[in-house]
Write a structure and sequence with these properties.
mainly alpha, Four Helix Bundle (Hemerythrin (Met), subunit A), two-stranded antiparallel sheet, 2 strands
């Protein structure tokens, strides 16, 4: 009589076991900053929203640097972290800027067009990157969407120097321009993978935080 033998299958890790992975903790910290940015955008406290927006980028860039420095990460951990990054990116660099534009435009229907285009461009850009990755191993096709937040945070420095009508037009045009660049064929360097660039972003983040905190006070 043949006795069937079953090969024991390796049990899958639990979902929450991936949370203790340090890069994923940084990713989630960035998501928390994005939630704060969205919250303050809806309330109309835009300077606080800018602080949350730039810190989301800082955590995003740092988690990638940490992940690449961890030689003992398993393939599943790397895959999970990559998927988590993509999902958080669509919120941080698509949803948050779209809500910022809607809120600054007092949720007038005309601003729905710009919000949709920015969010759609972010989704298309991320889908393209997930399919084809980096061009030549070190450059992006289209403007990486993390640059959207970096640029919008800079643009808001001029909000108090222009009339509300003029700045609203500038913000709208900037969002449309960024969306177009996101899905364009231009080649842009990958900035987040370099420790020097991460340090430069950290300096920029701290400077932006101080400026906007001072404006709030």
């Amino acid at each position: 009589m043949n006795v069937s033998q079953t090969v024991p299958q390796k049990s899958q890790p639990t979902i929450l076991s991936f949370v203790i992975d340090l890069p994923n903790l940084f990713s989630l910290a960035g998501l928390a900053c994005t939630v704060l940015s969205i919250y303050f955008s809806i309330l109309g406290v835009y300077y606080a929203a800018m602080i949350g927006m730039i810190w989301a980028v800082a955590f995003d860039w740092t988690d990638g640097l940490i992940a690449r420095s961890m030689s003992k990460r398993t393939g599943n951990e790397s895959t999970f972290g990559g998927q988590l990054d993509v999902l958080i990116d669509i919120v941080s660099y698509g949803v948050a800027p779209a809500i910022l534009l809607l809120s600054f435009g007092n949720f007038e229907p005309v601003f729905l067009i710009g919000a949709f285009l920015m969010l759609a461009a972010a989704a298309i850009r991320l889908s393209y990157f997930s399919t084809y990755g980096l061009a030549d191993g070190h450059t992006y096709t289209g403007l990486a969407i993390d640059n959207n937040s970096i640029f919008l945070v800079f643009i808001f420095l001029f909000e108090s120097t222009l009339s509300p009508e003029v700045f609203t037009a500038v913000l709208y045009a900037t969002c449309i321009g960024l969306a177009m660049l996101n899905v364009s064929q231009i080649k842009t360097p990958k900035l987040s993978g370099n420790s020097a660039n991460v340090f430069a972003l950290a300096v920029y983040t701290l400077g932006i935080t101080v400026i906007y905190a001072w404006k709030i006070l």
